Amino acid sequence: MERLPGFRDFYPEPIPHKDVWSADARQYIFGKWREAARRYGFREYDGPPLESLELFTTKSGAEIVGQLYNFTDKGDRAIALRPEMTPTLARMVAAHERAYKKPIKWFALPQLFRYERQQKGRLREHFQFNADIFGERDAAADAELIALLIDTLRSFGLTAEDFVIRLSSRNAWQEFYERGVPGAERGTEGEYQFYQVIDKLERTPPEETEKKLAVLGFSLDIVNRFIEAGEPTVELKAMLDNLDARGLGDFVKVDYRVIRGLAYYTGPVFEAFDRKGEFRAIAGGGRYDNLVKLISGGKVNLPALGFGLGDVVLLELLIARGLLPQFDGGVDVFVLIEDETRRPDSLKLIQDLRSAGRVVEYSLTTAKPDKQFKRAQELKAAHTARVEAGSMVRVRNLSTGAERTVTAAEVGELIGLTNVLPHPGPLREQPSRFKP
Amino acid sequence: MERLPGFRDFYPEPIPHKDVWSADARQYIFGKWREAARRYGFREYDGPPLESLELFTTKSGAEIVGQLYNFTDKGDRAIALRPEMTPTLARMVAAHERAYKKPIKWFALPQLFRYERQQKGRLREHFQFNADIFGERDAAADAELIALLIDTLRSFGLTAEDFVIRLSSRNAWQEFYERGVPGAERGTEGEYQFYQVIDKLERTPPEETEKKLAVLGFSLDIVNRFIEAGEPTVELKAMLDNLDARGLGDFVKVDYRVIRGLAYYTGPVFEAFDRKGEFRAIAGGGRYDNLVKLISGGKVNLPALGFGLGDVVLLELLIARGLLPQFDGGVDVFVLIEDETRRPDSLKLIQDLRSAGRVVEYSLTTAKPDKQFKRAQELKAAHTARVEAGSMVRVRNLSTGAERTVTAAEVGELIGLTNVLPHPGPLREQPSRFKP
């Protein structure tokens, strides 16, 4: 039986086949995402992978249905697998925003689904790092969000030579549009069509763009001059100064060719790209100050901004730049059982070491000593340990070859320093409020 | 707009409402699951949440469709949201087992879905810790798996007074059945019906059980005597001895009332229960030596065993026993910006501290000093830091009240020890094989 087209199987490394993905690499990426978000004070949330279809059509219009995994459930509800996280987040924030101090800084690592017409190798699901801020109109929030995106990418070893955040603003384009169409009202169909043309600028032949712009009352020349000038708006200037103060100025540039296709952005927008231009956008985001009001049916009004960073392009980029590590199970010690009469004592040692937090492997059944040792090497175990006469344990460091005989109680300490790393930005546990 | 019935929203703590769940508690549970699995040398995998419907009906028969979230996709495929992980795992193992040394020890933390007739408050999704071993017929593998289950539960602070693993065996019941129905062939409908009666023994009035057993040629009395004797089979004896050697004997007992409803178990089976009997089963599992062969259409034949441990009953139990901690964002330092001319220097300090792995918060915009300090306290920040004249930084430990003035470079070290915990059983990174 086969898996569905467009879905991924994630296997432990080493990867057995080019057609499957690394579960270890996925967890590595998730770990970096979580750590970066926590360092920035973002808190984790999650919602259901299934939502009512209406939640998505309210935000994006009926056209989105063509791209969704949607169906009718046994209770006759029109539902869909989430194609993006923002509608769920807006719903959740609107429901309980009063319980949280502003600004709300939240993140999630959802799996998202799209059913687009099938193209060979095109995925129908991916994972995304979503980070959002609610309740702050000041550009300082936009800068904080972009700094998080930059530091997330930096945490993988990527530098300012590898990627850049192209910074733009819906406000800048809105003013430009209004100068071109004096007296135009906000949110007209014409304005939206204009944004669509700008969004496709880099992928469309100039003649075609020229024609489309003419219909809307603009020339390509005036659009190009606006882009080339790249004069930052007041809000973009504030963001650039803020990021400069953090020492992150090299990672951003104003680039008005970025406008983001979706209708709901309201202020600064941005996309992360690799500098060489080999890949699709790594991440994208911006302000959407009206969405919470829309989703909550007018009950809650909160300014908002956020970004989404997918796992697929990021993974391609890390591989291309030689930045994706290889993973193993991190075995601290392989316990050799060469004499079956020592199996009970060996099991006790194994139990004690695991209880002390060590990663321990051993042969479940009787096996020749050289086969056990070979297995320890295959697993890249840091040490072997063998219970000997008088319950003493012979420990061997497999990288230095050094051997020592110690008591069972001393083994943990002897091998202890191999894998003890500082824990980056953990959740801190408090005494339980549920304690009776 | 509302979320779908039976689905959960996960919010950061403190929880705003009794109707929502804690994302922090969920991540705490996931963390403990992952750490326990890694200490035991299990490696993580994952598969798609959507699979072809056939994968599930092949394993469990057409009856299962009534309990599934199943639908026809736009490509006219009969598909379903996974109700359990084992069919996906069997499919994945069968596809690439040759690339992995045996025994294969894998785990996953999938979200699973069931569409059962609606009952108030009944969930339609949950998360499950799945751990499985492939390629080992010896009872040593069953003992290793059960030890993992025990240590996973112990890692939450649960003891032998809180839970017990009830150990049983399909083989014992099969022999019992064959003694009662001499010459019976294996895998008959009668045998399966008999197991169903045993499975429901504790929830069915004795008269009813008596009647059902009579039809199958058994008396309740002989069944009860077999259960009361509880004579361990050879394989169960080996497992008990193995767990005893590890010092885990107190956590298991033979109890033939456990048989597991599903048709596909073939050997030892087990369930974890709270000692007080207040909750449904915490976890369950056993051997399923024929499933890989069935799912692979006869291509691959591998003995297998595994368990599933859900998040919902576990969470109820932890709360009831006062073992669920309360969580906060673990803020290491709140940077106070009381003078806006110092904001650039403060942003630099914030950036440096975050880059060094610290969790840092601050006020995005101008705020009164006492309001900033109050926010630091609300966030349970361990320290505050304030940039002063000459780029010196005044650091205050909020639990001791101690204050010190240090250079910006020294702040990280001063607050460094608060959150640095040993990292339990991490994946170890190796140099990338992708490096150009």
Could you give a short account of the major beta sheet of chain A?
9 strands, mixed
What is the CATH architecture annotation of the largest domain in chain A? Answer: 2-Layer Sandwich
Q: How much beta of chain A, percentage-wise?
A: 15-25%
Structural class designation of chain A? alpha/beta
Quick one: overall form of chain A?
elongated
Number of domains of chain A: 2
Oligomer: homodimer
Integer average pLDDT of chain A: 91
How many helices of chain A does DSSP assign?
14
**How many strands in all of chain A?**
21
Q: What distance separates the N and C termini of chain A?
A: 50 Å
Largest interface, and how many residues on either side?
A-B, 126 and 127 residues
Rg from alpha-carbon coordinates of chain A: 27 Å
The parts of chain A where pLDDT drops under 50 for at least 5 residues are: 417-427, 430-436
Percent helix range of chain A? 25-40%
* CATH fold name of the largest domain in chain A: BirA Bifunctional Protein, domain 2
